[in-house]
């Protein structure tokens, strides 16, 4: 990603720390290791999504250019009486340049496709590049999951201005693979990359499809990263628990660097 709205040809590694680690001291330690790895594997683009409470201090103390920061979530309003929520303006002020929108773990707590639709333009207005997560809950044999994913994409992007499609990343992350021991096989990943791109082309046009980045998430680890990152039409990976382990993360960054 390497800056807002650019498409460099590099593979992206987005590290979603979720609600980890428990203390800022540990978060700083993990960040220090991650930024050193990012400096080694320069052909990989690295984005870190720490817990919001750690975002400002991590970003404030960083003087390099190899790592960018993402929020894990935002609210769909810019301000107001919304106890416990965080706005796009606030996380941008804290140092984020990206935000994950519609992650399956947020959807499981009640976030709807319509909520995602509202959040995407709000994030763009707040100068954040949205990483829009989509993915089916189950892989049925009747192909209903295809309609589910297509609807998530078209709903999420319905209110995006034409000039802002270049700022969008679609993260295909099937819900059933999150936290699973194994990711889908590379053929399945490739088929879904094609589906995502065709959905965007059909709904919004070929030009906008070519400007959007599409990445894969779900059970990405040090053992399968090389195979996943070799999939055609894939621009990177969204990594969860493996991003908390420096050994596993290094293997993923090396795979992205070499891809």
Order of strands across the main sheet: 1-2-3-4-5-6-7-8
Spans of at least 5 consecutive residues whose pLDDT stays below 50 are 1-7
Label the overall shape: globular
Instruction: Spell out the helices and strands N to C.
Output: EHEHEHEHHEHEHHEHEH
Largest sheet: 8 strands, parallel, barrel
Please tell me how large the radius of gyration is: 17 Å
- The end-to-end distance, rounded to whole angstroms, is 15 Å
Mean pLDDT: 94
Task: Count up the helices.
Answer: 10
Query: Beta fraction of the residues?
Result: 15-25%
Supply the helix-strand structural class.
alpha/beta
Helical percent range? 40-55%
Beta-strand segment tally: 8
Protein described:
The protein has 259 residues and is an alpha/beta fold. 41% of the residues lie in helices and 15% in strands. The protein has 10 helices and 8 strands. It has an 8-stranded parallel barrel with strand order 1-2-3-4-5-6-7-8, surrounded by 6 helices. Helix 5 runs parallel beside helix 6 and helix 6 packs across helix 7. The longest helix is centred in the last third of the chain and has 19 residues. The two termini are 15 Å apart. The relative contact order is 0.16. The N terminus is likely disordered.
What key attributes describe this structure?
disordered N terminus, alpha/beta, eight-stranded parallel β-barrel, 259 residues
Helices and strands in order:
Blueprint: E1 11-16, H1 24-40, E2 44-49, H2 52-60, E3 67-71, H3 88-93, E4 98-101, H4 104-107, H5 113-125, E5 129-134, H6 144-156, E6 169-172, H7 186-204, H8 206-211, E7 213-217, H9 225-229, E8 236-239, H10 246-258
Parallel strand pairs: 1-2, 1-8, 2-3, 3-4, 4-5, 5-6, 6-7, 7-8
Helix pairs in contact: 1-10, 5-6, 6-7
């Amino acid at each position: 990603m390497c800056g807002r709205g650019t498409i460099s040809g590099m593979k992206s590694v987005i590290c979603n720390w979720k609600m980890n680690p428990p203390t800022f001291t540990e978060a700083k330690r993990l960040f220090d290791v991650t930024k050193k790895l990012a400096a080694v594997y320069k052909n990989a683009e690295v984005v870190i999504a720490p817990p919001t409470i750690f975002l400002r201090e991590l970003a404030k103390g960083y003087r390099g250019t190899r790592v960018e920061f993402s929020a894990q979530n935002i609210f769909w309003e810019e301000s107001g009486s919304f106890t416990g929520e965080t706005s796009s303006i606030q996380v941008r002020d804290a140092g984020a340049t990206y935000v994950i929108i519609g992650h399956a773990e947020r959807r499981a707590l009640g976030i709807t496709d319509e909520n995602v639709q509202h959040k995407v333009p709000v994030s763009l207005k707040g100068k954040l590049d949205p990483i829009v997560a989509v993915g089916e809950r189950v892989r049925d044999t009747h192909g209903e999951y295809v309609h589910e994913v297509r609807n998530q994409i078209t709903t999420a992007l319905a209110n995006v201005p034409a000039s802002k499609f270049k700022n969008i990343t679609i993260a295909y992350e099937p819900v059933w693979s999150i936290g699973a021991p194994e990711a889908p096989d590379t053929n399945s990943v490739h088929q879904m990359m094609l589906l995502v791109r065709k959905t965007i082309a059909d709904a919004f046009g070929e030009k906008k499809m070519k400007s959007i980045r599409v990445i894969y998430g779900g059970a990405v680890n040090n053992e399968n990263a090389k195979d996943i990152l070799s999939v055609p039409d894939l621009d990177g990976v969204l990594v969860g628990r493996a991003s908390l382990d420096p050994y596993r993360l290094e293997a993923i960054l090396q795979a992205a660097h070499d891809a």
